């Protein structure tokens, strides 16, 4: 091969270079968000290949999301490295499993499970427990935790108690549903997501010929986002490695956000205990965000309690100064969403690309009000990490049609083939004017674009490969890319970056999430999640919250505890709502609540002429106490200096 190490290493800082140039063997990069960890490992792979230490085909890099894996492949190609594997743990395992399956099991590879909740529902029904969607989702999540933690049904009750889980049903009942689910799944000869990893590890552990062949094929392993590795993923990684130590890991313990699902930063923090000869590199220059964003990120994570040794890294911003992060409080969620949409319009009109804007929320249910607000302003968006795309009727119909067609193997040019198959479902030449029909059309078009994307990266891809890619994306809830503002959960945003980021719904009960309340470890994970959110922004960052959910809503919600001490004192949002209202006296004719006497403003007043949080009928004694309470509340809202 040709050696062009200089251009490859150009632009890397000395610490990044140390990681890139480290000899073969264990390397660990411990560093904060935006410091170039991902960029560093990509460069390291390229450097190792260029120097002839390994061939590209011998490299296996695992990352957290399909999109991140895709980006890694793109960056490797840009560095002229072709054929290196960059995949999620699951995708890598699935590929290997299909290859080994005939030797390990003997019959045709099993299919991926489609409709997990249905199976969990059957098992729950047989076990005699609740089968509402919400309950099934919790049960499925708990089973996933157990599998990721390498805990079988029999051991579940004891392990759940040890791990201080908060099981969705009596632990014995969960164990019963878990066992029932496994049995149903095996009878149906299908594999769930975790099975891909379990079977891959087992194949390598129990079949020495398989392990030898595999270890001969892959010689260099790289793991991004290593702080969120689960025991199950670690077991797969160990099976891949065998006795070898050619492993590069990068991670940031402050970004551990999947410990609820069994992940742990311990393997990252204890890396040198396992590999005492490892090269350890710490990066602290932040290349992603403006100093304003970096400083906010430092404040958010600086308040964290019990940070493990090795996670105490401060970020030093490298980019030129930018605008201050914005903080704003709204009366209700529709008002918050409308303001966010209006601001996005402003940014986009000012030259920020749609694909460079993200609205990030804690739970996917928050997405809807933003979808409405964006639609209102004609701003295209895509929902990432939600179930929406793959739950859409037309997408499910399309996937069924594609699966059937793939079976008959029409060998035709892929995108044209896909388009032809989707025309009967509503993929007209011209886009329909709007509404549901338009949405349907957009999803179908996205499926065609995905086919185009696939053949661009894998020129030989056929319909069967495409159908498999779709299944995989459906499993990992990774909808295809459409040009638009990204709506995503904070969890789905990890590793990614945008010019403008909106962190919305920052109220108690949502961020931190309700069920974290009273659980210190869970609260700290919520704080890290906010840190992940803040550090996604390159330039524009906005943090917002609303005091009521619905328009004129009654329930008074408090801003997130994570905001205290984080909003600068000179920001108007740092002061309680009441004092700001006095400043913004733009209400034409002031109105006052007939219960508590406060001035009414904005969309808050109800038809009855009282505050949304004032009860309708009050006696005088209660009224006094309410006034007192409102005073207290105002004091509590004041941010400490
Ligand atoms: P995260 O923890 O969020 O995954 P990360 O540490 O992986 O962050 P990267 O995504 O690799 O960070 O890099 C963040 C941004 O900084 C990217 O846009 C990357 O191209 C840029 N970057 C990284 N290193 C440098 C450098 N030495 N000079 C200029 N830009 C850099
Ligand atoms: Mg990264």
User: Which strand order do you get reading across the main beta sheet?
Assistant: 3-2-6-7-1-8
Low-confidence stretches: 1-6, 581-589, 602-607
In percent, how helical is the residue content?
40-55%
* DSSP strand count: 18
Distance between the termini: 60 Å
The radius of gyration computed from the alpha-carbon positions, rounded to a whole number of angstroms, is: 26 Å
Structural class: alpha/beta
Question: CATH first level of the largest domain: which class?
Answer: Alpha Beta
Beta-strand percentage range: 5-15%
Number of structurally distinct domains: 5
Attached small molecules: adenosine-5'-triphosphate, magnesium ion
- What's the architecture of the largest domain, going by CATH? 3-Layer(aba) Sandwich
Shape: globular
* CATH topology name of the largest domain: Rossmann fold
Name the average pLDDT: 85
Q: Assign the CATH superfamily of the largest domain.
A: P-loop containing nucleotide triphosphate hydrolases
Total count of helical runs of at least 4 residues: 25
Topology:
Elements: H1 5-9, H2 14-21, E1 27-31, H3 37-50, E2 59-63, H4 66-78, E3 85-88, H5 89-104, E4 111-112, H6 116-127, H7 133-148, H8 156-162, H9 171-187, E5 190-191, H10 193-206, H11 208-217, E6 220-223, H12 231-241, E7 247-251, H13 266-269, H14 271-274, E8 279-283, E9 285-286, H15 291-302, E10 316-317, E11 326-332, H16 333-349, E12 357-361, H17 367-376, E13 381-384, H18 388-391, H19 393-407, H20 414-422, H21 435-457, H22 463-475, E14 485-489, E15 498-503, H23 520-534, E16 537-548, H24 577-583, E17 591-592, E18 599-600, H25 620-637
Parallel strand pairs: 1-7, 1-8, 2-3, 2-6, 4-5, 6-7, 9-10, 11-16, 12-14, 12-15, 13-14, 15-16
Antiparallel strand pairs: 17-18
Helix pairs in contact: 2-3, 5-10, 6-7, 6-9, 7-9, 8-9, 10-11, 10-12, 15-23, 16-17, 19-21, 19-22, 20-21
Bound molecules: adenosine-5'-triphosphate (ATP) and magnesium ion (MG).
